[in-house]
Amino acid sequence: MRFILIIFLASSTLSIAQNNYPQDYFSNPLEIPLVLSGTFAELRSNHFHSGLDIKTQQRVGLKVKAAASGFVSRIKVSHFGYGKALYITHPNGYTTVYAHLQKFSPEIEAYVKKQQYLKESYEIELFPSAETLKVTKDNVVAYSGNTGGSGGPHLHFEIRDKAERPMNPMLFGIDTPDTTNPIVYSMYAYPMDDNAFINKSNTKQKLRLIPLNNGDYTVENIEAYGNIGFGIETTDRQNLAANKNGVYNIQTFINGSKNFELDFKRFSFSETKHINQLIDYEHYKTKKKRIQKLFKKNNPLSILKDPVNDGLLNIKDSTYSVYKIRVTDYEKNESWITVSIKGSKNSVGKPQKIKTTPYYINAGETTNLKEGNISVDIYKDTFYRDFYLDFAVNNDTLKLHDDIYPAKKSFTINFDVSAYSSEDQSKLYITKLLGENKYPAYSRTKRKGHILSTNSKTLGTFTLATDTIRPTIMPINFKKGQWLSNFRYLKVKIDDESSGISKYRATINGKWILMEYDYKTKTLTHDFNDGIVTDTKNILKVVVTDNVGNSSTFETPFFRK
How far apart are the first and last CA of the chain? Predict the structure, then answer.
């Protein structure tokens, strides 16, 4: 009876909390039914998803409407991330965000392009005054697209509070039909110290998850002793799409008493990096599955609510405990997992043997490592935990452990390249070797004298690489000397196979022109409707520079009436 009362109170609290937000203030920003490919606070690489990803029927160019009246307070155009993004501040203090846009409405587009031409930059960030670009609810403010880091056409939509913290838009009545219970794929148990054991093991254990006919789950009975924690792999889906999306709330109970909660209602951008401490980071890096840990250990995330003993269980000998997990989506569909735990010293085995190395990272202290021409500076509070570090240097290659421990902030890697000639030094850069095939990926390299440095938030293997090859520049939709009178766009493909493209600049008859760069298609595009090209005979000049300074110039005449 006590357990039922707790659930009732938790459900009532959840319902009341959801109704504290205006329900009719914001409208669907698209004219089509709301179908989601991503939900709020969904687990992503190195961050929580900060809004809803709304499907646009695999098309771009759909009308995007202001979800409520207000004024455009920020506009950001970038090659990566949100691509073209619009921010609207509303009288009630909230801000809505619309990202991955194809283009803005004519008035906003003209305002942005004017500033881009003044600054001679495609990438730009603007903060219009409250009187500059006023908008009315349901007015078209942009068109949906696939710009920036988007993996396909969709609209990314956010609602932020006065402190710029993203909130779940579903709290405001923007939701979609969902009658499906969350799905649980796997469950793990974690001994938390040398004196904790699960089924006589001191290492993480995958538990046998047993689906029940009512949609809930049970787990094969376990024996345990000492401090243990649990983690689950779970997703949710809505009725209108097959996408595996994030859940809304996870609560845990031990013998009827709540001891932990994950509440995906709101978070701040400053804390989103701690997602790597919420998930089993090593499991994700080695198996590509995100296990959400249901305990707080060394995690400052605000979405972790009311942890008792950090959500851990202290299992004693000759006891019997029932551990329950309640996974809920926004529409209150829920799935329960029940674990019966027998406390027994008979489950005690040998502690796992920890691999030691000469290098030990004390997370509370600064560590400086050096061997040969390579040094590493790991600052205080870079990592969440202490651990033995693999550190080895072989010529110009650094092995800095495997990427299995998450970092809170960056550490610095330095290469002394004084043994190289000045000419060779100028073409060197630092690269990280990724995956089983050790694919080289450029790591942003700084130069100070004969020292090359890079900052990284991930462990792994780093080495020096040389780039002596210039970027390539190729026309896409025109040829040298061609008449382009009936063309709307001028398109050029740029590429660099080694260190990658750092910057580009395009002019026609010596005058700077706006060219939009899509890194996914490696395309630069100029819109003749900008009105810059007014002469009949024109000389297009494009200069592209890579990350070590190699530069290429493409120049060609074309004609236009």
Answer: 83
Closest CA to 123 of 144, 102, 148: 148
Element (H, E) at 544: strand 537-546
For the entire predicted model, the pTM comes to: 0.93
Three-state SS at 108: helix
Instruction: Tell me the C-alpha distance between 333 and 539, whole Å.
Output: 62
Structure-token match 């073409």, residue found: 427
User: Residue 30 burial (CB < 10 Å; 0-12/13-18/19+)?
Assistant: buried
At residue 242, the pLDDT reads: 94
Place of tokens 């010596």: 510
Cβ partners under 8 Å of residue 412, min gap 6: 376, 377, 453, 454, 455
Cα-based distances in Å from 183 to 37, 187, 238: 16, 12, 12
Kindly give, in sequence order, each residue whose CB lies less than 8 Å from that of residue 435, ignoring residues fewer than 6 positions away: none
DSSP code of residue 195: T
Helix (H, G, I), strand (E, B) or coil at 77: strand
Per-residue pLDDT reduced to its tens digit, 149-183: 999 999 999 999 999 999 999 999 998 999 999 99
CA distances from 122 to 30, 342, 410, 540 (A): 26, 63, 29, 17
